[in-house]
Amino acid sequence: MKCEHCTRKECSKKTKTDDQENASVDVPSPAQENGEKGEFHKLADAKIFLSDCLACDSCVSAEEGIQVSQQNAKDFFQVLNLNKKCDTSKHRVLAVSVCPQSLPYFAAKFSLSVTDASRRLCGFLKSLGVHYVFDTTIAADFSILESQKEFVRRFRQHNEEEPALPMLTSACPGWVRYAERVLGHPVTPHLCTAKSPQQIMGSLVKDYFARRQNLSPDKIFHVIVAPCYDKKLEALQEDVLTASRGSRGTDCVLTSGEIAQMMEQSDVSVREAALDTLFGDVKEEELRRHDGAGSDGYLAHIFRHAAKELFNEDVGEVTYRALRNKDFQEVTLEKSGEVLLRFAAAYGFRNIQNVVLKLKKGKFPYHFVEVLACAGGCLNGRGQAQTADGRTDKTLLQKMKGIYADIPVQLPEASTHVQELYQEWLDGTDSPRVQEALHTAYQGPGRPADSRDIKW
């Protein structure tokens, strides 16, 4: 038996059961070991299911399994309960950051507008004892802007001797983990070095916001609400995300489905509340998203920026052309019959396999590829758009897509808060602090991929 996405003949996480959908790594959480149930004790422990896992190469190690078990609601409630019991000097400030692809899930599930869903979610979390609830869109702004600059730089530096292209996106932790652990060279040098929105949000909360509130980073317990399970693994692998004292940027990741389960089980009185901002603004800001059908839209933003910077071409609406399937699409910029830019979006591992094979053979026609592990993009993350038996809830997903499409799009360049942060937090757009806070390096070279690694 093996994971449906696994590249190996046998999955190292296999169990004795023949039920692939229910086989999992089952590791007791610290809350279990301590005999503490706390609130919502009927919630399931955090597990990595074979049908959920998108990260290949020995899947999840025993040590990672133990750490993933800590990425659950029980330990979240453990912090909440300790705040209620212990001296105020020992309290931790709880901050929750919600991914923009999670909000349409709550809206669709509870039949609300996305604004009302965000207010109910925020009110629920604060009724539990959470102090701040943020939107991670601003972190995605930084990730996209840094990716734009890096692509333009790579395009200008590219040559046959030292190829800098294609550039492959680095926002999806399932894809990045697979690239690092399984593929190695020649893929990892093509990964964009811009950190993911989750990693950048960790820096914003544990560094910028902590200093603004005169708090030590370890006094903040930072939770991410995300649409997929791979974000839990990403939180474990984060490097030093803050500028001081080495605090991990994200302490816990809960999927949208886990939060919804908590909301359904709760009988606490909820007063709706607006999302907070990192700047302490009182005025409620309008929800916004980036230009992607089910994700943050790296392709569209980088395509427009590159067309303008490199060829002085203004691109309005980006036109996608489906190739092998709806999850493998192409966008081109042409002038006088010549293709100036050729971009692609590859979602799901079967399309990723096609990209990797062409790249290895040196027959790769693209300058840039937006790579996402989940077919259909982040809205279809396995932490939210699933039925009880682990299949995609197509009706719910269709509702989510419609809700997400109705959220106003704002270009990252248009965010005044982002420009202020570049100056106030990072000492300018080209300072050493930008490299430290917004960019990363990848494990390398990694073991080279062989036929076993790339055949499904």
Task: Give the structure's gist in a few sentences.
With 456 residues, the chain is an alpha/beta fold. The chain has helices spanning 30-33, 62-69, 73-85, 103-109, 114-128, 137-157, 173-183, 197-212, 230-237, 256-265, 298-311, 349-361, 394-406, 416-424, 432-438, 451-454; strands at 24-25, 48-49, 93-98, 132-135, 167-168, 220-226, 252-255, 321-325, 328-335, 338-347, 368-372. Mean pLDDT is 81; it is low at 1-41, 44-59, 240-244 and 445-456.
Structure description:
This protein is of the alpha/beta class. It folds into 2 domains: 56-138 and 197-265, Rossmann fold (3-Layer(aba) Sandwich); 142-195 and 290-438, Fe-only Hydrogenase (Larger Subunit), Chain L, domain 3. Helices cover 38% and strands 12% of the residues. The protein is built from 16 helices and 11 strands. The chain has helices spanning 30-33, 62-69, 73-85, 103-109, 114-128, 137-157, 173-183, 197-212, 230-237, 256-265, 298-311, 349-361, 394-406, 416-424, 432-438, 451-454; strands at 24-25, 48-49, 93-98, 132-135, 167-168, 220-226, 252-255, 321-325, 328-335, 338-347, 368-372. The strands form 3 sheets. A 5-stranded mixed sheet has the order 5-11-10-9-8, with helices on both faces. A hairpin with a 2-residue loop joins strand 9 (328-335) and strand 10 (338-347). Helix 6 crosses helix 8 (197-212) and helix 6 (137-157) crosses helix 11 (298-311). The protein is globular, with a radius of gyration of 21 Å. Residues 1-41, 44-59, 240-244 and 445-456 have low confidence and may be disordered. It is found in: Nucleus. Residues 390-446 form the Iron hydrogenase small subunit domain. GO terms for molecular function: lamin binding. Keywords: Nucleus, Phosphoprotein.
